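haha ok so turns out i had the wrong file open the whole time. this is the CORRECT one, sorry everyone. sequence first:
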Amino acid sequence: MIKDLMQIKQLPVIEEQLKNVSKVIDERVKNATSLVCTDETVKAVKEIRANLNKDYKDFEEQRKMIKEQILKPYTDFEDVYKKCVADKFRNADITLKGKIELVEKELKDKKEQEVKDYFEEYKTANNIDFITYEQARINVTLSASMKSLKEQVKQFIDKIVDDLKLIDTQEHKTEILVEYRNTLNISNAITTVANRFKAIEEEKKKQEEFMKESTKTVIIPKEEMQEILQAPKVEEKQEDILILKFTVKGTRTKLKELKEFLKNGGYDYE
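then structure:
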């Protein structure tokens, strides 16, 4: 039934067939959805639903098949068109683009070299030796005029000249210049050095305060001093002196050594 209703002829014919199919579907859907679903009829309702889903699946398969057959002639045409027309234009465009880019690159490189040469000349004229062309970040394009590019270089170097003049008026100009060379940021360089010396001064003050505290003279009241001076002395306990008599036998040398020992040891002997 479905195959008879949907046949591949021409799009207008297919559309007419679909309109006829739509009427049939409307009738079936209307009858199905008007059914009362109860314990007794639920089985029949399920069967009708399954049939509707089966028919819809068949229609979908037919639709996909028709789409493939309708699109096939165009797909074939597109392949031929790509080979005979599109690829040839595309290849020509790629070739010409490469040639154009090569020439434009040469022109741009030549233009940028002229800007670099001007940068070095103007830098030398202002006695500046610590900056590079890359730091200026000049965007050289074919459309940019040489006058505007050189003006950018001049503004960049002039600003550095002004910054150096300002640094020369500062108290810690040597330290600031070292910082400035790294960043080319004048405000940051001045602030960094100022904070550094401020921290050093604060540390010196802390050290001085610490030394003052550690060397302060402690004043003891007169009453406390008298108590300290009048503190009772602890007498050392004297041992009793005893007499020990004994006879020693030995060589002359040994006896001399014993006598020397007694003498050096503070013993009182006879």
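Residues 2-78 form one domain.
again sry for the mixup
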